[in-house]
C-alpha cells in the first residue's frame, strides 16, 4: 500500500455502508462483457454511464486507459509511451494487454463496457483470443445504428461557451440570441471536431474500419442493433430490454 493511501478507519461509516450495499446489490447482477459500437455523436457516451451503474460494470475507454498506463509507468505504459513519442500508433497487442490488465481490477469483477475498441476486425480477433484465455467472451455488442445525415444535424449544430462549458444546439437547444451565451452574453464557439469536414472524415473511417467489426460479431450472434436516432430515454429502454433478455 502506498504511504498516502487512506486508512479505512478514516473513511466515514456512511461511505463504507454505501459501498457495501452497492457491492451486495451488484453481487446479484449477471456478469456482462459489452462492446459499444457507433459513429461519433450516436449517443454511446450518454448511455455508457447508465449501463455501467445498472450492471455494476467498469467502463474501459481505451484512450483513458492508455494515458493512465503511461502515467503509472506500467511496463505496457512505458512501451506505449515510446510508440507515441515516435509518432507511431500503439500496437493492437499493447492495447489488448492494457485491457487485460485493467480487467483484473475489483471494479471489473462483474464485467466491462468497452468503448472505442475494437475499431478493426484484427483488434476484435485479438480481444476474443485474450478473453478466451480467461474462459470468457463478449456477451453483447450494442450497435448504435444511426443515419449519417442525422448525425450531421446533431453534431454540426453543437456550439459551446468555452469558459463555462455550457452547450447549445442550433435546433434542439438554441441560445436566446444567436451565437451568444445566455448567461454571460459572450460569443459561442464550435469545437473543431464538430465541423462538417471533420465529421465526414471520422464517419468515413468508421464505415471503412469499424462496420466490418459489426459483421464479425453478427456472425457470432451477439449484436443488438439500437435505434440510436431516438431520444436518449427511449434508447436506454431499448438497451435495458436487450440486456435483460
From TrEMBL:
It is an enzyme of class 2 (transferase). Residues 158-193 form the Adenylate kinase active site lid domain. One of its GO terms (molecular function) is AMP kinase activity. CDD domains: ADK. SUPFAM superfamilies: P-loop containing nucleoside triphosphate hydrolases. This is adenylate kinase. Monomer. Keywords: Kinase, Nucleotide-binding, Transferase. PANTHER family: NUCLEOTIDE KINASE. It comes from the Eukaryota. NCBIfam families: adk, PRK00279.1-2, PRK00279.1-3. Belongs to the adenylate kinase family. The gene is ADK1. Gene3D superfamilies: P-loop containing nucleotide triphosphate hydrolases. It comes from Buglossoides arvensis (corn gromwell). The lineage of its organism: Eukaryota, Viridiplantae, Streptophyta, Embryophyta, Tracheophyta. It catalyses: AMP + ATP = 2 ADP. The keyword Acetylation does not apply. Its EC number is 2.7.4.3. Catalyzes the reversible transfer of the terminal phosphate group between ATP and AMP. Plays an important role in cellular energy homeostasis and in adenine nucleotide metabolism. InterPro entries: Adenyl_kin_sub, Adenylat/UMP-CMP_kin, Adenylat_kinase_CS, Adenylate_kinase_lid-dom, P-loop_NTPase.
Amino acid at each position: 500500500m502506498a504511504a498516502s493511501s487512506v486508512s479505512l478507519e478514516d473513511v466515514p461509516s456512511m461511505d463504507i455502508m454505501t459501498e457495501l450495499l452497492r457491492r451486495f446489490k451488484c453481487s446479484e447482477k449477471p456478469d456482462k462483457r459489452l462492446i459499444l459500437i457507433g459513429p461519433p455523436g450516436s449517443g454511446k457516451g450518454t448511455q455508457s454511464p447508465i449501463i455501467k451503474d445498472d450492471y455494476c460494470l467498469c467502463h474501459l475507454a481505451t484512450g483513458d486507459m492508455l494515458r493512465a498506463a503511461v502515467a503509472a509507468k506500467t511496463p505496457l505504459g512505458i512501451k506505449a509511451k515510446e510508440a507515441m513519442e515516435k509518432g507511431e500508433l500503439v500496437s493492437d497487442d499493447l492495447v489488448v494487454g492494457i485491457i487485460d490488465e485493467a480487467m483484473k481490477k475489483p471494479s471489473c469483477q462483474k464485467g466491462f463496457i468497452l468503448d472505442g475498441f475494437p475499431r478493426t476486425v484484427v483488434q476484435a480477433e485479438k480481444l476474443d483470443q485474450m478473453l478466451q484465455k480467461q474462459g470468457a467472451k463478449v456477451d453483447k455488442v450494442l450497435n448504435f445504428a444511426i443515419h449519417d445525415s442525422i448525425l450531421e444535424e446533431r453534431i454540426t449544430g453543437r456550439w459551446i461557451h468555452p469558459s463555462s462549458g455550457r452547450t447549445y444546439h442550433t435546433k434542439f437547444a438554441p441560445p436566446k440570441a444567436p451565437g451568444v451565451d445566455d448567461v454571460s452574453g459572450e460569443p459561442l464557439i464550435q469545437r473543431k471536431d464538430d465541423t462538417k469536414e471533420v465529421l465526414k472524415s471520422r464517419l468515413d473511417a468508421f464505415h471503412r474500419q469499424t462496420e466490418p467489426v459489426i459483421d464479425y460479431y453478427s456472425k457470432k450472434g451477439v449484436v443488438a442493433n439500437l435505434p440510436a436516432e431516438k431520444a436518449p430515454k427511449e434508447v436506454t429502454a431499448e438497451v435495458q430490454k436487450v440486456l435483460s433478455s
